[in-house]
Amino acid sequence: MSRPFPHRHLLGIEYLDRADIEQVLDLAETFLEINERAIKKVPTLRGRTVFNLFLEPSTRTRTSFEIAAKRLSAEAVNISGSTSSATKGETLIDTVKNLDAMSADVIVVRHGASGAAELVAKNVNAAVINAGDGTHEHPSQALLDAFTIRAHKKSFEGLEVAIIGDIAHSRVARSDLFCLAKLGANVRLCAPSTLMPLGITKILPPELASRLTVHSRVEHALEGADVVMMLRIQAERLSGAGFFPTTREYSRTFGLNRKRVELAKSDAIVMHPGPINRGVELEAEVADGTRSVVLDQVKRGVAVRMALLYLLGVSGLPHDEGWPPS
Amino acid sequence: MTDALVLRRVRAVDPSLALDAEVDIVIERGRIARIGPDAGAALLKSERVRVVELDGALVLPGLIDLHAHVREPGQEYKEDVRSGLAAAAAGGFVDICVMPNTKPVNDTRAITEMLVAKAKNIGGTRLHPIGAITVGLKGEKLAEMADMRDAGAVGVSDDGRCVMSSAVMRRALEYASTFGMPVIQHCEDHTLTEGAQVHEGAVSTKLGLRGWPRVAEDIIVARDVLLTEYTGARYHVAHVSTYGAVRILREAKHRGIAVTAEVTPHHLLLTHERVLGYDTACKVNPPLREDEDVEALRGALADGTIDCIATDHAPHSSLEKDCEFSEAAPGMIGLELCVPLLLGLVKAGAFPMARFVDALTAAPAKIVGLDRPTLREGARADLVLIDTKAKYVIDPSRMRTKGRNTPFTGVPVEGRVALTVAAGQIIHEAFA
Question: C or N: which end of chain A has fewer Cβ atoms within 10 Å?
């Protein structure tokens, strides 16, 4: 573990290079084993303080970070609230400066506004981990997705990954796109045109641009895919003019069912960042089927977040200290 | 106390007189007494004469800004009439038109009168209110335009909001034309920009911010051009930002429809990539767009499709800018940045000097019916002297405006407004 992690914060996969991503995944591999033990705890981050500042509802991600911190013996403090302007009193900057004044080592932040994690990072001394900011990025999710894919597939090189659903409003889609393209996979994004954001083909660095293709027919996206990632469709996208007419029609045209999944390779895996809308984007039989690795994603998420807390939480100390975890 | 001011051996540019020459300008009793080569020579020895002689001095007619926000009444912590007029004078402006989206909205004679009276009392740059088109900027009921005109309003606008209803816009054009007032539209189809933060494109997608598509501007410009043709009224497009709007305007002017338009310095200079990193100083409405838009805007300003330059000076405090991008208020300051920033573009050949001057003097004067500032003998002495050799770095903390919200902080520029004269009075002076 001689290579120091070259970032003080984790704000988005956009800012990482391939070696950084692989460093996180390699480290997560070693943490995976701790989660299998009877006593799932190591003293690595003893005395460190991790604030989980979740200003948008979340169960899975918050719990995953909390468990990751606790298994590394850090003090995990959870703060939840709402960022809706109606309930807004203190500014975000004031809130995080207060946490910083309590000598936070890591602030994990989930916020409804895109760019919120970056704003926090600019205002604190603590390391900041973006646990999802608006419709921008969700880097720890992308890392756990990559970690899961790596466990099931030999290599990312040339791997065909279909990401299907609400690309426009998905921070997971953006982070996954950056992450998988950087690791060498080909990414196929698929959505009705209303949910495919303008300029999506221009967001990757030029040398990776050829790894992205955009599809409006789900059959084309699925054909020969190694990995199928389904994104959650939110009911509120139906309000106003609406991005699609009904969930019924969405499910029929873009949902993944037993028949459609056969278009992918015979050993293709099915993923979902959760929470699943059963019967909308994912048929229950597929979600629970043999190809589904949804729960493996959750399990590996804890190990990835342990790796992140370790890499970012031991600032000011040589990265060898506290290693190997015993 | 001096009787006369002599601007010695300056380059004077006034396209309305086809003037671009080295001259002396003698200002006496509020007027330009003499202008011409060596016209001030006889006065140089007099004790009661002030002589300004500066290498690289450029003198233009006093500038006019059609579009500024001075935030009074209601948001004096951002700007007030006094600081706004000081900023205007420091920017070389002798006349500014102030937008009605204050708190409360300037949709009545009382507020128009208050602004006019207050500004007169302060002196310096002259202030001309723009009244609201509709009561409360709601886009529903026409405001009392005739009353506001009698109190000094020179045009009407719901700036910040677009008059969405075609029926209301038609009546607004007809009614305003009754009193000879232009209707100034903030062109934004709000149904296409709900929650919009930045230009819709690769940057909005990368940052995960709701996009403001070009077409939301183009649709309104196109509709309003048709309504203007139909009603025979006078129509002015505020802060044009898209190449599509430029195309529609060019065609409308070609067909002789009475449309005019303005462009801001920031839309002539910046593109949406500047928002990367969530810099709230770059959040502005309409948003910063792409290279092809900037190119079209520069071309349109050069060929006169876009008549004038307006700053859209929009001061905000840190309360509105040091926050999440989606919570931040749109706008940037402009009054004191316009000349130094745009002189750079003139120098780079984006548009000729004569067009630059016309776009800040005669063109806006005509649109709102103000006296045209000119460097003619006998004319009211409204002029600005620019030290074109002054090199410095933009620093908002040294400005007169209360606003610090600009993405141009730290940018090196050439050209400083050294002297602003309104009706013969020096209203700003900043020699190095």
Answer: C
